[in-house]
Amino acid sequence: MRKINKILAGAGVLTLTLTLAGNASYAGGPGKVTTPTLTGFASLPATTFVPGSEPSGTLVTGNTNGVPVPFADQPVQGFSGIADNGDGTFDVLSDNGYGNQANSADFLLRVQRLAPAFATNTVDVLGGVHLTDPRGLVPWKLTREDRVLTGADFDVESIVKGDDGSYWIGDEFGPYLLHFDRAGRLLAAPAPLDGVIAPETATRTGVTATLGGSKGFEGLAESPDGRYLYPLLEGTVTGDPAGRLRLNEFDKRAGRYTGKRYAYQLESPANAIGDAISVDRNRFLIIERDNGQGATAVFKKIYLADKRDRNHDGLLDKILLVDLMNIANPRKLGGFGTTFTFPFQTIEDVVILDEKTIAVLNDNNFPFSNGRTPGVADNNEWITIALPHSLR
């Protein structure tokens, strides 16, 4: 991701070498477009599992859209963060499990390595790593004695991959920032955010919660020079104006927050953010969504947000970049009509492929979401979108 940020932040000619077939990072674009246009579609079936892994889903209840539980293996599901490896493959963060802490103790937290193959509308699963704490850096009791992390320990929702291959991951149960090496081993104790306490931490510590459930670090951006992280909360902290979200600056070198804080204002307090990534040192792409799916999905948008606050209202400046419910599809990719919609409850991944192309992925909340077809568990869909204007 930082490689793309450096290109966008710098001057001169943008030069990228891309393979436009097979396991390409995106399919070929249609040339100049006047409106956001679908250029690639790929789908990973909902019932995709890690071969030979441990059973999972023994605590899952409710409407599973016809998918029998429990599962013989760990599902490859719930994409909540993405990092571009620059070679046509991506490291994608699976969500915490099955929607809450109580039913996710047998879901092993994992970074999946994937490659979209737009020529066949498919996604190849190439492997991945489980997240673990072998050094005992988490100071409270974990679910498993072997210190493999589960969805009952952390709710991982956002990811940044460093040049050294390590992962910075945003959690919602703290909320915490977590730093793992390339093998998925925790490198430091979870880093809390002063004054912001999720209900799961409140229950464990007895401290009063200041944040709603599942409202922690949904987005995680990185400065182009790689020094700073910008975790964005999904929910409003107690005492802040309704629908206002905090974006804090974290110094990776110092291992602490700098005290700088910005504010993102939701279009409606009922909305939530799905992801936040850097474009350059001042601007971010932020997914904002309503809670609907299928016929009730109305508001699914990507904004370009600028921390320079040119109108001096104390908020990130916002410009609509893409309406995900109204994407031009002149080639009828994926078997859809000339207008493509992304009608999922949770859309939690955006990545910049070049100055005029982004990719977006949904979190399918397996097996619960059915935004594409009523009564059928959603697949993990992966789309690329050509933009009418350069991000530079």
Automatic annotation (TrEMBL):
SUPFAM superfamilies with a match to the protein in the record: Calcium-dependent phosphotriesterase (SSF63829)
Domain of life: Bacteria
InterPro entries: Phytase-like_dom
Signal peptide from the UniProt entry: 1-26
Annotated ranges, domain Phytase-like: 74-366
Record Pfam families: Phytase-like (PF13449)
Name of the protein in question: Esterase-like activity of phytase family protein
Record's keyword terms, sorted: Signal
